[in-house]
Amino acid sequence: MAKEKLIMGKIISGILFVGALLLMSKAFFLNAYPDFGAYYNGSFGNNILNYPPFVTIIFSVFSIFPIVIASKIWLAISISSLLLSLYLCFKLFKIRILSSLALILSSLVFVYFPVRFTLGMGQLNLLVLLFVVLTFYFYIKDKDAYSGICLGISIMLKLFPVLIILYFLVLKRFKILLYTLLTFAGLSLVSYFFIKPEINNNYWLHLLPVLTSTPVDYYNQALSGFLAREIHNYFFRDLSRIIISIFLVLFSFWLILRNKKADFSKKTLEFGFLITLNILINGYSWQHHFSWLVLPFLTVFFYIRSKNIGMWSYLLLGTSYLLTCANLKNFVVYPALIQSHVFFGALLLWGMAGFLLFRNA
């Protein structure tokens, strides 16, 4: 009987996996990918707005293909990045890649709206996710040089996740920081070599400061977007954002430092904790940016599983998943508070990780 249940569970999880993979793969049948189109066209003029100039070099490679073919190649790279990210996480947490648990978790990732939104827009978030996961993977494995290189690349792709730099500084992992700095400097020099200096200077000196603006748009689900929808006074809104962000960062590092243990569970929980916070306090975080929550969700889930914490923890984690996975197509008919459902879901995930860190201490 037990063997039959095991086989049935395997079949059901396999069906869910294939169905979710097919649903995610529907992105291949879209006619256009707006953000990829901007990357592709911007690479011809050596200027992709809102991104470090190094990104232009990457997407200039695609200019040898017609945009229709280039976009499908990029989509395949994005999905491959996601699959490799999941593989590395399962390997780190000692979960067999074809186990029922791995298949079910992968299915939840495949149908996760921020992931599908990323693919539909042709965004580069899943490539960034891969390098963040690699940073995490090599950090846990104590391969500091590789961890620093991957962190440097992720920051050069999208200036994310900068809070991890502060984390490694607090932990005195100076070798990781050194390789992060060397990678960042090296890729910046490459950018100046291949991209016009005036374009590089314009990005770092003029465009980047403007990117800290606070869009009120529903798709901005960062703290800035929540405050923009709730507070109409610009000065008080910006002041509130600064004060709350500083408090959240200080509180987070206080939680991390109060527990001196450096075991596997604590390190994985801390990393996901700070990734979530980084998304929350960004100048803006569009819904597709929340695809980076794949890693924090997995770190919290496996922590709960390893510590045999009660069912309430899975219910809270599921609530966080549903809130961040939802998408209000006709969002204007909903109150501003409900429009911030992704923000509240991510805040719940951050709060859960923080509580578990506090409990662990």
Please describe the topology of this protein.
Blueprint: H1 2-25, H2 34-44, H3 54-60, H4 67-92, H5 100-110, H6 113-121, H7 125-140, H8 144-158, H9 163-170, H10 174-194, H11 197-210, H12 223-230, H13 234-258, H14 264-281, H15 294-307, H16 311-325, H17 336-339, H18 341-360
Structure characteristics:
361 residues; single chain; mainly alpha
Descriptive overview:
With 361 residues, the chain is an all-alpha fold. It has a domain of 150 residues. It is 74% helix and 0% strand. It is built from 18 helices and no strands. The protein is globular. The termini are far apart.
Mean pLDDT: 92
What's the oligomerization state? single chain
> Structural class, from helix and strand content?
mainly alpha
Which residues sit in consecutive blocks of at least 5 with pLDDT less than 50? none
How many alpha or pi helices? 18
Helical proportion, percent range: over 70%
Distance between the termini: 42 Å
Order of helices and strands: HHHHHHHHHHHHHHHHHH
Biggest pleated sheet = none
The whole-angstrom Rg is: 20 Å
Strand content: under 5%
Q: Assign an overall shape.
A: globular
Count the beta strands: 0
